[in-house]
Design a protein that fits this description.
This protein has twelve helices and seven strands. It is α+β, with helices and mostly antiparallel strands. The radius of gyration is 20 Å and the shape is globular.
């Protein structure tokens, strides 16, 4: 199944771990998510026998965190943070380390298998996980062992991750949709490939971003840039025209590129 097939079957991207595999499939030796799903099912089965009776949400989350971060040894990769493997969920499961977003996808998917209404929270610079409850969101940071995150902790994460460039406000602690999560996952890789001038890899990440959000003119513009670096003017022109069509306001940079390609759009 391709990413496009997955999005047609699950447009809300509820099967988040499966979507995380399809979203980065060109970077994987085996793009079939079945092994990831089987592993998550096995861990969920282990957790089912550890659930507290009578039921206690905090003790259940303690059991989840203990399994993931104590027994299985998952941790945030601080030493090689920018390694693309940290964005590939099958590699994260094998290496037991990853980015905030991949560890959060793992946490959210496993929590859902336990019956929780688990979601991601797309803080600037640092993705975390959360549970939707009757009293609001309960947030956790899988990159740091699943520790609880309140407003003060969220502010500290944003300040640290953005070197103070972004001011935290409480509205940032809101659930991210599954599609928003996959967009952020692919964009993490895309920016790394652009920085490395790896145009072959950047082409598929740009294409996957368009599949995930075809109405976003920026993604068409970015793929046009990749095509231009690959000396592929025809597809670059098609993407620029689509970006221009989707843009609410005139984009001088798109117009300049179109002129360089010998057309005004």
């Amino acid at each position: 199944m391709s990413l496009l097939d997955y999005l047609r079957e699950d447009p809300e991207c509820r099967e988040l771990a499966e979507g995380a595999v399809h979203a980065v499939a060109p970077a994987l030796d085996d793009p079939d998510p079945v092994l990831v799903s089987m592993q998550l099912n096995d861990w969920a089965y282990q957790l089912a026998g550890r659930m507290p009776l009578p039921w206690n949400t905090h003790k259940a989350i303690d059991a989840l965190n203990h399994l993931l971060f104590e027994e299985l040894g998952f941790e945030g990769d601080r030493e090689t943070y920018d390694d693309p493997l940290n964005a590939l969920l099958p590699a994260v499961l094998a290496r037991r380390k990853g980015l905030p977003i991949t560890l959060s996808i793992l946490w959210v998917d496993l929590a859902r298998r336990m019956g929780f209404d688990a979601v991601g929270v797309s803080l600037p610079g640092h993705y975390i996980a959360a549970l939707r409850t009757d009293v609001g969101l309960l947030c956790f940071d899988p990159f740091h062992g699943g520790r609880a995150v309140g407003e003060e902790g969220g502010a500290e994460l944003v300040t640290s991750a953005t070197a103070g460039r972004v001011a935290f406000h409480r509205d940032m602690l809101r659930p991210a949709t599954g599609r928003e999560t996959l967009i952020r996952l692919v964009r993490n890789l895309h920016l790394r490939f652009l920085h490395a001038e790896d145009w072959e890899e950047a082409l598929w990440t740009a294409t996957h971003l368009i599949l995930l959000q075809p109405e976003n003119p920026r993604f068409h513009k970015e793929r046009a840039f990749v095509h231009l670096q690959r000396e592929e003017p025809a597809p670059a022109l098609a993407d620029l025209r689509e970006a221009l069509r989707l843009s609410a306001d005139p984009d001088p940079e798109i117009q300049a590129w179109l002129l360089q390609l010998g057309t005004s759009g």
